[in-house]
Amino acid sequence: MNAPTFHDRLRDYVSGRMERAAAAEFARELAADPARAAQEREFRAVWSATEMLGTLVPVSRTTWEDVLARDARRRSRTRRVAAAAALLLALGAAAYWISVRPGAPASVIVEAIPLERPSRAPEHEAVPSVLAHYAPTPADPAQGVQWLSDLAEARAVALAVHRPVLVFGYYPTCPWCIALRRDQFREADFVAAAVECVPVAVDLMTLEESEVVAWLERGYPLIELQTAQGDVVATMSGPPGTLDIDATLARGLERWPSEPPALAWSAANELARSFASSLNSESQGRLSDAWRGFTELQQRGQGSLFESAGAAGCDRIAILAHDELLAARELARHDIEGARTRLAAAAQTCAGTPFEHDLRSVLSALERGHAFPELRPR
Amino acid sequence: MTELPARPRLLTPAEDALLNRDPVDSGGPSDVHALFEAERDRLFRFLWRLSGNSNDAEDLLQETFLTAWRKKERFEGRDSAGAYLRRTAFHVYLNTRRRRRKNVGPPGDEELTMDSAAHTAAESEAREELRTRVRDAVAALPDGTREVFVLFRFEGLSCAEIARLSELTLSAVEGRIERATKLVAARLRPHWEDMPEV
Fold first, then answer.
1. To the nearest whole number, what is the mean pLDDT of chain B?
2. CA within 13 Å, CB half, B90
């Protein structure tokens, strides 16, 4: 049991509860110690002042029934809180399970990427590169028309611009041929008609013997108006003076169908350059630029080869996105991280194209669900 | 010197009820009910002095009885049931204060029943003014110091008992009593002449 402290004794002394002998001894102690004596005076004053608070007797209104009711409320609240906590826990667990469960991927609606791969990969050699800068019209009419020298190339150009091919088969040392190129082919009427065609001068020395025989059977020097497929529209073959070349050529051009209309050489050059630029972007992996170029070609080259060339370019990019998407899905069967990396790279490659969004959606779903999502067509 | 074991004492029926762990929600064992009736006013006064108002004190009182029953294992029959309840009430008050971060003091401006003799209107007014000053002086004591002062001044606990109850050292209790005394005295010093003499 602890001995009374100074304050215990001080309280007993001040309140008068201390026995007389003990009080006398405590008084002597205080008299001998001025600090303690000052403490006693201060304590006595506070004791006296707070006496009136000690006499206040508030009355409690709490009853035994209040205590029992509070206990009942507490138990009810505890049950409700426990039930709510259990419900929240269950909901949280369900949400977590749904978000991370393996093997139950989310679905992604694929907006732009074709889920079925086109059976034929579109080619992109249809537009001859020479068309980017070629036109038969001479800078100086006295120079005569600008002849191409490759028949296949001329036919490709003819297909692109919806014009007939003007074929001139010659031997370089043939006097007739030299005379024709020097004189008649530089006359204004001929030049005016020839620039409506795709003129090609074929050196017969460069052909196989069998081909030469077949050509020569149709006349020599061979001058024909042909379709891009090689069908003869008009022939002006034969020694000079045999036929009126200008009149025959004019009649042949009159028979040439007006639909689809021939592309102006300047427009064809511009479209061809745009196509070449888009093709270059595609080959360098700048698919956003390529996509934009091919799309413009589709719009501007209505009804022409450029339209289909633009569409083919767009299709190739779509196929690339398709292949990457399906390759990532295949990879995800055994390597989720590899699939994620591949999708991220594909999305980067296709940035700026309509396929980027699909790839990023799938990537996001894969990262959320740790599984490759189910792909659904729009 | 070896401390002698506490002298055995007879348990009251209420203390027996606490030790027998009778359930309180079965309608209330009559002995525990009797304990409540016996200790209610004393505990309420104690809690009222600590919390500063009747509403909080009523709330704390109910909580005290529920807590005392829920944790009756802590009552081992060494102390009286009253001491056990006061100890419980004090900890309920401290926990509530910590939760609320509320600095409460002695009684507020509420109508109280006085056990002192009736006074004239003028005397009552003067006493009321003094009472307000004293109440404010005690209420202004810092947390921790005020509780020790209330236990010492109004509950009559010894410094050792306060130390055990508050889990403080004896010197810390003495220090807080001394500090409380100085703080209250400093606030009331200008009004010493109005105060009743011991």
1. 75
2. 21
Which member of A4, A43, A71 has the closest CB to residue B66?
A71
**How far is Cα A68 from Cα A66, in angstroms, rounded to an integer?**
5
CB < 8 Å to A67, chain B: 24, 36, 62, 65-66
Instruction: Report ipTM (2 d.p.).
Output: 0.75
Q: Partners of A119 in the beta sheet?
A: none
8 A C-beta contact, residue A365 and residue A106:
yes
B192/A contact by beta carbon, under 8 A: yes
Residue-wise pLDDT tens digits, A52-95: 777 666 788 888 888 888 888 888 888 888 888 888 888 888 77
Global pTM exceeds 0.90: no
Average pLDDT, chain A: 87
Q: Which residue has the tokens 């579109």?
A: A122
Res B16 pLDDT > 70: no
Nearest to A64 by CA among B151, B14, B165, B78: B14
- A-chain residues within 8 Å CB-CB of B182? 42
Query: How many other C-beta atoms can be found within 10 angstroms of the C-beta atom of residue A171?
Result: 15
Q: Which residue from A45, A58, A66 is facing B54, i.e. has the nearest CB?
A: A58
